[in-house]
């Protein structure tokens, strides 16, 4: 089960956050700062999984962007680790390099891929299909 | 798009409205729509599983969809459902295996590949499902061996995601029924993970190893060196995972090293969660495997000083209990205690060291209880040290209370007591009411040395003080007051009740009817008063309450004493003080301003007795507190962790293991042939008839017609249910007519069946065979009589030989009182005949489940004697009987019971109405329905011989709010559990 999905930059600002389990709004910021701090404090040689309170963090760094996923302990860490990469590949394909100004679309993509804490789609073409239809509609 | 929204945010109430629309979409021609529809259904399943129950068949269709996406989406639903109930979906194993085979074999469209691995997340999901399905099930597991093998083989590519698949594979291989070749391969995989230079893989390997090690500890030996390397790894996460692994393989030999490592890690780590977690584990290990006393105490010291105030309160409580109750060996106990005392004194000697509050509390308790073991140091010195701590500002007031309690305990042992006097002076003027209270108590105690010594005996911490919680000695005062014209005391809820009834005409409070009808005109029952004084204590002494509830076990004896003390004073008649009568009434007034009218004179005395009032109020409350503390302890006994070396608490465990052995005994012995079976049936049938006759003579009191309907539902031992007797006999006749003894048998049958029909009004369980061999078979069944449980064993001789000196013996069990009914010893069992033995069983103390063991001895004509052993499982439910009382009595009883448990239970759909829910409870748990008022109901039952338990319940939609009260502390919990099982299960 995925508990939350975060995209953070190196300065510790949250770019995107999505929770699949109810967390109170004011507690979210607190949680996010703690999560980011623990991720930033780790070096490249250390492993990408962190045990954090009663769940686990899996993070990956892409240039200045961190993607952090919180999962419960029954989840397969490596699968999530690769899933992050899959997600980034999808973003790459759609946005062709300029990512961070179309957050609504990132949300749509994420919603296609993760639902209720489960990975539901990993096929790139299929993830992007609804989004492309939307684009076509707005153009015409 | 709408479907996406539906699957994300959707209120449960709207499901019925939208469901048909979504069901339509399942047939849509576009696969993306179908997929979304399935996902929306998954969401529905998450929030309200019972609303989509009827379309499970459609999920199956989705699973077989020609599009991979739709199929993958349906897997989520299945994963969830299988997790809840794996046995219901075993038939799908084949489909899952085929799907996985196709995926692994690369039969999917290319665009599902991720880095040339076919749909890795799909594979992982499938593997997980298979793991759940194959758990402990050899047949299902066999189906998947092939595909697992293939997955392991295929996933050789060097890519992260294949490792993820491998990991899942290994996980599955170890969860399902083991197969040696697969295990070997999986172990090899783990080896590769662990040895990998990549840190993420190492982590994964360690995790897998941790999982695997529980089944196969030898694997750890192979990777010894790697594990040790990982222990010193710079990455704390790896280190932690390794510790987790070590925690699983700890035993008596390696405990010292492992705990050492854990403590090292603990000292470096800062995060609270990790500390709490790790401290708990260390404490658990230390209790389980401690090699010697010194080590144990030192480890616990470290745990307390590091864990400090964040750790779980169970840890210090368990520790203190271990010290107090001790082991089997008394000298070892003394050594352990002595060592603890010594080590604490040295710790306290150190200057300028700050210990966590909890640690100080533990210290003060131990010093207070066991300082007498010291030779060279006198109690005075210990008191001096405690005094120093008391004067320390950094110590919290709760800890100070502990410290003062310790001083109180030590005072009778001390000879000169300047310090104690100073201490009393110091604290009688303290601002903290709680401390002031303690100091006054100490002061009064010191004035009466004899009393003090009797109240504070040395080394009696395990023995509970007898406290008159019902305050019966106050009855006289109350009666006197009443005769003087004071209004009777009314408990809190009743006052509210009256207020409400004055304000409104209609009363919607839950107990409206029962309480007002019960009408408290006479003197309140003692327990009612203590209940009321609990409330007064609450309002007056909230501070006290806090400390009291926090102290739980460690201080229990102390509270007992204190609760006892002021009462004693009142009894012995401390002449200088005004007798406590008015105080009691003042308390009443205090809590009950709306109703009680006071005599003028008593109001005048009020100001004078302010202090006494406080004292009494708190003492009343404390007395009650003690009771509840003991209750808490009683509960903890059954649930909390048992110490390895303690002999006291083994009964539950042994009970469990033997009940498992009971299972395989089936009604038929598989080896015997058909004719034998026939014989056996007849035997048992006839035997049953005999039994019923017996019972008739024994038990003339017939149960009412209700019990008739209960009969089918109480069949707990369901290995073989006899339908209706008449049907059964028809069957038998058909089967048996060709055999030679047909005529005589037919007679027997008719006799037996008539008897059966007649006696089926009694509640009894089915006949279950408990043991057998080629010559003899023993069966048993239970008869739930009104006043006891009757267990009947029937021995049938199947051989053609006479058995001599047959003797059935039931070994006495800890919790039961067993009485033999007449006619139990038989010198001879004739050929092909049946004899029965009856035992009535009484429960001596409540427990949830227990076993009755026995054996049968007999001698054949020419051989030596043979002994057969058997056992019968008894549960608390066997001793529950309906309690028939009126609503009025219910109200009265309800108030007098101190132990209550509340819980909301969700009902299954089939019985979402009150009457049906009631019926199930009545039938399955044998509860008596006292009254039904609107959507509420009152039920009562009793635990034999006579422990009543009351239940109030109310229905809100599909939620059942249950509220139990009983005079026994464990009974409500148990009944709640049973109710839950019944209500949710069916």
From TrEMBL, chain A:
Keyword Cell wall biogenesis/degradation listed: no
Quaternary structure (record): Adaptor protein complex 4 (AP-4) is a heterotetramer composed of two large adaptins (epsilon-type subunit AP4E1 and beta-type subunit AP4B1), a medium adaptin (mu-type subunit AP4M1) and a small adaptin (sigma-type AP4S1).
Span of domain AP complex mu/sigma subunit: 1-137
Pfam family, one: Clat_adaptor_s
Membrane topology of the entry: Peripheral membrane protein
Alphabetical UniProt keywords: Membrane, Protein transport, Transport
Family: Belongs to the adaptor complexes small subunit family.
Taxonomic superkingdom: Eukaryota
Gene Ontology process terms (BP): intracellular protein transport
Protein localization: Endomembrane system
Protein name: AP complex subunit sigma
Keyword Protein transport set for record: yes
An example Gene Ontology CC term for this record: endomembrane system
Function: Component of the adaptor protein complex 4 (AP-4). Adaptor protein complexes are vesicle coat components involved both in vesicle formation and cargo selection. They control the vesicular transport of proteins in different trafficking pathways. AP-4 forms a non clathrin-associated coat on vesicles departing the trans-Golgi network (TGN) and may be involved in the targeting of proteins from the trans-Golgi network (TGN) to the endosomal-lysosomal system.
UniProtKB/TrEMBL annotation, chain B:
Transmembrane spans: none
SMART domains listed in its UniProt record: AP4E_app_platf (SM01356)
Keyword annotations of the record: Golgi apparatus, Membrane, Protein transport, Transport
Signal sequence, start to end: none
Pfam families, A to Z: Adaptin_N (PF01602), AP4E_app_platf (PF14807)
Annotated InterPro entries: Adaptor_Complx_Large_Subunit (IPR050840), AP4_complex_esu (IPR017109), AP4E1_C (IPR028269), ARM-like (IPR011989), ARM-type_fold (IPR016024), Clathrin/coatomer_adapt-like_N (IPR002553)
Oligomeric and partner information: Adaptor protein complex 4 (AP-4) is a heterotetramer composed of two large adaptins, a medium adaptin and a small adaptin.
Name this protein carries in UniProt: AP-4 complex subunit epsilon
Lineage, broadest ranks: Eukaryota, Metazoa, Chordata, Craniata, Vertebrata
